[in-house]
Structures are given as structure tokens and as C-alpha cells.
């Protein structure tokens, strides 16, 4: 909501229930379809009642990108915590280093692009050029320090809730390990789902959850079962509320 309201003019800003509805349908899309299609579903739900030709779709696409970039803040905090407390396999350290460096570069480039002076797009400009220009306006949250801090804090809160959900699921599977082990699993699972190559990245996610737990003496089979249970719980939430709001919006 914070990011979207910064991206759109005041008269076009959707109410919170509508944003939550679109967000929930996006969770459903990301759970059952490959390639982050759910992010586009959110844009489609929000823009379908907006006036055509105003650039709302482009702005919303930019806001989706900005929203995902704010995951970098809790990811960095969690990485510091994991490096200081967890038993990390060497391959995991390399993966984290690559993702964090790429993420920081993307974040800085986005801040730079968002800060550029906006120039009106000529009427005869091609559709792609207009879309990119509007998408840049969707990054406006990067130009508003108070809104950016609020978005980062809310994303961090979401990650903290996820962390304790992962830890609780570990205990449900008889894996009695410290919070640092849950933090390592959460971090690597989020890295593995940055690019969903197939629906839910089923199989890959279980391996990513099981492999780091071997450093804690957890049998691989137990880790795979835990990874499957964790994904079932997470997907059940996304699919469950996603279907409810899909019906609420009158969509198939």
C-alpha cells in the first residue's frame, strides 16, 4: 500500500481492501504459476477499473519492482545474523554473497533512476517507451525517505513473522534447533524462490531447506519432509486466501 500510494496520483489511489485483494490474488498466482506471474496479476486486478491511457499500469509495474527491492533490507539484516550465529555450508556463503551484491547494485540503480528528473513523454512516443516512463514513476517511493523507511520496516516485520513460522514448523517436525538454523533456512529458501522456474519451485525448495540443516545433524530425509511441510503450509495460505479474493473480484 505504501509503495502503490507513492506511485499513483491521490485521486487514483486504491483503498487498502482493494490492494489486499490484489496482493492475495498475486500470492495465488505465484504459488501455482511459474515466473512470478502473480506480480502481473496484482497489476491486472488493480488497473482493470482505472482509466485507460493514464499510465496507471506502468506505474503499478514500477511499484511491484520497488516493493520487491525492499526485501533487500531484511535480507541484509538476516544475512548478518546468519553469518554471526549459524553453521553455514560453503556453497551457501557463495550464493548469499552473489545475491546480496546483485541486490545492492539493483537497489542503488533504482534509487538513481527514481531520482532522475521526469520529462513528459511525447504524444507520438511508442507504447514501450511510454510504459517504461510510467514504470519509472512507479519508483517514486525511493524519492520519499519517510515512505521508504515505512516500507522497509513493514517488509522487515513480514520477514520476522516468516522466521518464527519457519522455526515453529521445524519443531513440528521434531527438529529441535536454534533460531539461527531457521534463519539460515529462511534466507536460502527466499534466495531459491527469487526466480520461480516452475510452480512453487517444488523440489528445489525442499533441497534448499534440507541441505543446510545437515550441518546441524538433521538427517536429509527429515529435512526434505520439513521442506515439503513448510511449502504446503505456505502455499495453503496463498492459495486459500487467493481463491477467496478471486471469487470476491468476480474473476476466474
Total of DSSP H or I helical runs spanning 4+ residues: 11
Using only C-alpha atoms, the radius of gyration works out to 19 Å
Number of strands: 0
Overall geometric form: globular
**How much beta, percentage-wise?**
under 5%
Mean pLDDT: 88
| Helix-and-strand structural type | mainly alpha
The run of helices and strands is: HHHHHHHHHHH
Q: How much helix is in the residues?
A: over 70%
In this structure, how is the largest beta sheet organized?
none
User: What is the straight-line distance between the termini?
Assistant: 24 Å
Unreliable segments of 5+ consecutive residues: none
Oligomer: single chain
Description:
With 252 residues, the chain is mostly helical. 71% of the residues lie in helices and 0% in strands. It is built from eleven helices and no strands. The chain has helices at 2-7, 16-32, 37-47, 56-69, 72-85, 90-114, 127-137, 145-172, 179-192, 204-213, 220-248. The longest helix is centred in the last third of the chain and has 29 residues, at 220-248. The chain is globular. The model has no long low-confidence stretch (mean pLDDT 88).
Amino acid at each position: 500500500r505504501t509503495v502503490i500510494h507513492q506511485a499513483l496520483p491521490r485521486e487514483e489511489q486504491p483503498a487498502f481492501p482493494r490492494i489486499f485483494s490484489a496482493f492475495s490474488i498475486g500470492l495465488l498466482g505465484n504459488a501455482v504459476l511459474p515466473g512470478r506471474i502473480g506480480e502481473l496479476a496484482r497489476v491486472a486486478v488493480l488497473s482493470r477499473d482505472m482509466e485507460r491511457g493514464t499510465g496507471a499500469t506502468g506505474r503499478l509495474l514500477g511499484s511491484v519492482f520497488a516493493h520487491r527491492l525492499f526485501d533487500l533490507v531484511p535480507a541484509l539484516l538476516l544475512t548478518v545474523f546468519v553469518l554471526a550465529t549459524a553453521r553455514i555450508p560453503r556453497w551457501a556463503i557463495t550464493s548469499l554473497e552473489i545475491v546480496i551484491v546483485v541486490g545492492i547494485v539493483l537497489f542503488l540503480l533504482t534509487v538513481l533512476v527514481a531520482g532522475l528528473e521526469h520529462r513528459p513523454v511525447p504524444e507520438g512516443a511508442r507504447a514501450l517507451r511510454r510504459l517504461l516512463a510510467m514504470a519509472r514513476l512507479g519508483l517514486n517511493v525511493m524519492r520519499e525517505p519517510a515512505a521508504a523507511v515505512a516500507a522497509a520496516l513493514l517488509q522487515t516485520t513480514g520477514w520476522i513473522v516468516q522466521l518464527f513460522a519457519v522455526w515453529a514448523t521445524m519443531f513440528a517436525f521434531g527438529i529441535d534447533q536454534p533460531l539461527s538454523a531457521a534463519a539460515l533456512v529462511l534466507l536460502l529458501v527466499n534466495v531459491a524462490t527469487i526466480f520461480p522456474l516452475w510452480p512453487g519451485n517444488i523440489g528445489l525448495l525442499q533441497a534448499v531447506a534440507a541441505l543446510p540443516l545437515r550441518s546441524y545433524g538433521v538427517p536429509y530425509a527429515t529435512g526434505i519432509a520439513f521442506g515439503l511441510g513448510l511449502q504446503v503450509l505456505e502455499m495453503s495460505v496463498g492459495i486459500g486466501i487467493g481463491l477467496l479474493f478471486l471469487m470476491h473480484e468476480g474473476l476466474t
